[in-house]
């Protein structure tokens, strides 16, 4: 489980867009092997936090370290830093003109320079891990939303990330397809993957998270064990939010 150096460390993170302060000083660390779920109302800054961690946004101020490497620093090799992180969004964003196997091999080949045989071996392994190995030759449009999202997870895993970031990975899915995706994410956590998961699925957070973080209005209001934050929140804002979603 947890080792000494955090896999992800965020300190004093601020992010503003024009005059709008979206993140107002976020401190968060995720230990290697830890699963942290981030919950909170829409607009509270959860996606912005993930986007600052995975370098889609530059922090206005503060520090973000992944595997001890400071991301927002001029000397950092951003491409190398990005490779440490696998990102899964609400929308799967698979390439529609590529097969499933093509989707899980293209970045391995272009970014990691793996040859075709190696990329396909790794790709098939990752597809098997998420239970869609039989769909390798299908096109995304031929898959259900749940299968597409599992392919998106396999695509991220194929890059051997040290951290997986998920931003509401089941929010775009029909309700009957949510479970299969959550099961895959849960299994990754059981296998020791370090994960930061933004989710509205409280039952999932309660079961899978080592720690739950509640965000509201650009700050972390409280964090702790799922049983504490979800079942016995200390703050009124957390209680109000949970009352609405549970
Ligand atoms: P959440 O994921 O918790 O719903 P977000 O991080 O997406 O919240 O957004 C937090 C706030 O930041 C919202 O008020 C949103 O409108 C604003 N915001 C997010 N991205 C941008 C952007 N690129 N430009 C301006 N405002 C943004
Ligand atoms: Mg969001």
From TrEMBL:
Compartments where located: Cell membrane
Keyword Membrane included in the entry's annotation: yes
Key words of the record: Amino-acid transport, ATP-binding, Cell membrane, Membrane, Nucleotide-binding, Transport
Domain of life of the native organism: Bacteria
UniProt-listed Pfam families: ABC_tran (PF00005)
InterPro entries cross-referenced by the UniProt entry: AAA+_ATPase, ABC_ATPase_HisP-typ, ABC_transporter-like_ATP-bd, ABC_transporter-like_CS, MetN_ABC_transporter-like, P-loop_NTPase
Membrane topology: Peripheral membrane protein
Domain ABC transporter, residue spans: 8-242
Signal sequence segment: none
KW Aminoacyl-tRNA synthetase (keyword) present: no
Location (main, coarse): membrane
Family statement: Belongs to the ABC transporter superfamily.
PANTHER family per UniProt: AMINO ACID IMPORT ATP-BINDING PROTEIN (PTHR43166), GLUTAMATE_ASPARTATE IMPORT ATP-BINDING PROTEIN GLTL (PTHR43166:SF9)
Protein name (Swiss-Prot/TrEMBL): Polar amino acid transport system ATP-binding protein
Organism classification: Bacteria, Bacillati, Actinomycetota, Actinomycetes, Kitasatosporales
